[in-house]
Structures are given as C-alpha cells and as structure tokens.
Design brief:
Helix content: over 70%
Number of helices: 9
Shape: rod-shaped
Structural class: mainly alpha
Length: 419
C-alpha cells in the first residue's frame, strides 16, 4: 500500500491518478504489460493506493524507492502496513508449532504486501518456532512427573495455541480463497480487457473499412465529376465548333457579296473607261475636222492672196486668216488638251477604280473577319457615285472641247465670210 498524505480522494481525478502511478512503475523497471496487471484501489485517508496482482510483479514494485513514485507532485510513504502484518503473524507463530498452512499464510501476507525482506523474516520466524516447540516438548517429557500441574497448564496453553493456529489456518484458507477469487476476477478482468481490445480492433477494422468505402465513394464521385466536366467541355467544344462554322459561313457569304461588289466596281470602271475612250475618239475626230478646216482656210487664204490686188487687203486678210489659223491651232491644242485631260481623267478614274477595287478587297477581308457587309455595300455605292461624277466630268470636258471646236469653226466661218 502507498499512502499519499496531503491529498484528498474526493478532489482528485482517480483514473488520471492511477494512470500516472502506473507510468511511474514503468519508469522504474516494470513493463507496460506488468504495470497493467496491477489492480489499484484508491481508498480515503489522504489517498491510499492498495495494489493487487501477481506476486513477482508486486515484489518488483516493493523494491522501488517510494520517492520515485510521486504522483501529482506528492511523494508517498513507504509500503509498510502489510509487511507489519506479516511480521506480526510470524512473531505469533514463534510461540508454538508452525504448520504448513500457517507458513502459507505468512508467505501470502508478505507476498501480497510486495515486501520480500518481510516475507523472509516471517518464514525464518516460523522455522525457529518449530525448533522451540520441539525443545519445549522434550522438557515437558523430562519434567512430566515433576511438573504435572505445569504440564496441564502447558497443554491448556497448547490447546489454546492450536486453536489459534487453526483459526489462522482458516484465515489463511480464506485468504487463499480470496486470492483465488481475486485471481479469477483478474482473469475475468483480463478476459474483459481482451474482449475490449478485440472489440477495439474490430471497430478499428470497421473504421478502416468505412474509410476505404468513403475513399472509394470519393474516388467514384471524383470520376463522375471528371466525366461530367469532360462532357461539359465536349459540349462547349461542339458549340464553339458550330459557332465557328456559322461564322465561317457568314464570312463566306460576306466574301461572296464583297466579290460581287468588286465585280460591280470593275464593271463600272470598264464602263467609265469605255466612255472615256469614246470621248477621246470623238475629240480626235473633232480635232481632225478642225485641222481640215484650218487647211481649207489656208488654201482659201492663198487663193485670196493671188486673187486680190490690194496687197494691204490681202495682208490684212492673211493676218486675219493667220489669226484664225492660230485660233484654230489653239482650238486644236485645246482639243488635244481636252483629250489629254480626258485621258488623264480616265487614267485617274482607272486608278481610282483600282484603288476602289483594292479597298473593296481590303474591306472584303475586313468583312470576312468582322462579318460586316454593310460597309462594303456603302463603299461600293460611294465608288459608283464617284464614277458617275467622273463620267459627268468627262462629259463636261467633252462638251467644253466641242464648244471650243464650235468657236474655232465659227471664227473660221467669219474669216471665210470676210474673205
């Protein structure tokens, strides 16, 4: 027994106290298995720790210095109570004949206390009691006749002692039964511990299986989520592909419309070029007429010079004809200029048409990227309007050339009339 003074049984956590005491046993030589075999009962009176268990384990506990078994900061007193009981029993046996039962009681009491030294002392006392009893029996046999009264008293004392020994034997037997009951209880406790451990192992196995099942379920969920995500990605990719196909179709239509606009622009350009060519041919024809008229005027002037007698009149007429020729030449140059201007305008219009075609092509490319066909149509309309304006400008130049030619013809007619 260990007594912890200064502590109250009601104020401590008993389970924690027992666990810490067992830990001190392990720290001082016992194995965890041996420590678990010790049954610890806590009793009041400060705190008294009564221990039961296998004799060898309790003997080992009895050899530990109590100062090393401090629990919750308190150092216990030495294990003395059961040892004192064993020594007292041994001293009582020394006064009479010892029996095997009394020796067993002494050994049990000393062993239960876990004090090896006390057990040895008690057994030694029992052996001495045997020798003393034999010596006393010899003395009683030698002095039987002389001290009958004393023998009777001694026999009475002996009977009393035997009765006491019988009672002690019974007590030892009871103690043995108690030990057996305690051993049975310990076995039952160990069996309960084993079942508890098996139950804990089974629970751990079930928990492990549940964890594995949860892990498998989680894996299945992840696979399902991954499959759903993959399906969503495929659906997104399919929609993106359809959208891309739709955009490609729209771009193709826009490109076709742009090509149509380009072809229309080219047709307008070709038409403008044809008109410019026709105007140029007409201007050349008018210039040839002016030149023919100029030649006729010169011939008329020569005839007039030969026919007229008055040199001054002829000179004046010649001067007038020269002026008329110069005006005709000017008209011819104006016609050529108009022709060149018309050709230049036609070239500018062609360049503008090419520029329009290039811009239309660029706009077609932009339309392919942005699917914007309306801008291309408006640009084509604008180009058509510019070409119309260019055609009107060419027509205006043609009219101006005709006016110049008519003016030259009028002057030539005036000169001819004057001649």
């Amino acid at each position: 027994m260990l007594k912890f003074d200064g502590m109250s049984l009601k104020e401590i956590d008993q389970d924690k106290f027992k666990d810490e005491l067992r830990q001190r046993f392990v720290e001082n030589g016992l194995s965890p298995k041996q420590s678990n075999k010790i049954h610890i009962e806590l009793r009041a009176g400060s705190v008294c720790a009564v221990m039961r268990g296998p004799t060898n384990v309790l003997s080992t506990v009895g050899s530990i210095d109590p100062s090393k078994l401090h629990v919750m900061g308190c150092v216990p007193k030495a294990m003395a109570w059961l040892a004192e009981q064993a020594l007292s029993l041994g001293q009582d046996l020394a006064g009479g004949a010892a029996t095997a039962m009394s020796k067993g009681a002494v050994a049990f009491a000393a062993g239960a206390a876990g004090v090896v030294g006390a057990a040895s002392a008690a057994l030694g006392a029992a052996d001495s009691a045997e020798h003393d009893a034999a010596a006393k029996a010899a003395q009683q046999a030698a002095a039987q006749k002389e001290e009958e009264k004393r023998k009777s008293e001694e026999q009475a004392r002996k009977a009393e002692k035997e009765k006491q020994i019988a009672e002690e034997a019974k007590a030892a037997e009871d103690a043995s039964k108690a030990a057996e009951a305690e051993a049975a209880a310990k076995a039952a406790e160990e069996e309960a511990t084993r079942k508890t451990q098996e139950e804990e192992a089974r629970k751990k196995e079930e928990e492990a299986k549940a964890a594995e099942d949860a892990k498998a379920a989680e894996a299945a969920r992840l696979v399902e989520e991954e499959t759903a995500a993959k399906a969503a990605q495929e659906e997104t990719a399919r929609k993106a592909e359809e959208e891309q196909s739709r955009k490609a179709e729209e771009e193709r239509k826009a490109a076709e419309e742009a090509r149509a606009a380009e072809e229309a622009a080219k047709a307008a350009e070709e038409q403008a070029a044809r008109k410019a060519e026709e105007e140029r041919v007409a201007a050349e024809e008018e210039a040839r007429k002016v030149e023919a008229d100029a030649k006729a005027a010169e011939e008329a002037k020569a005839a007039e010079e030969a026919a007229q007698k008055a040199e001054e009149e002829q000179a004046r007429k010649a001067e007038e004809e020269r002026k008329a020729a110069e005006e005709a030449k000017t008209a011819e140059e104006a016609a050529k200029f108009a022709e060149e201007e018309a050709a230049q305008k036609a070239e500018e219009e062609r360049i503008a048409a090419e520029e329009g075609a290039r811009k239309a092509e660029e706009e077609a490319k932009a339309a392919e990227e942005a699917a914007a066909t309306k801008a291309a149509e408006e640009e084509a309309a604008r180009k058509a309007e510019e070409e119309r304006i260019a055609a009107e400008e060419a027509k205006r130049h043609e009219e101006q050339a005709k006016a110049v030619e008519e003016q030259a013809a009028a002057k030539a007619a005036v000169g001819e009339a004057a001649r």
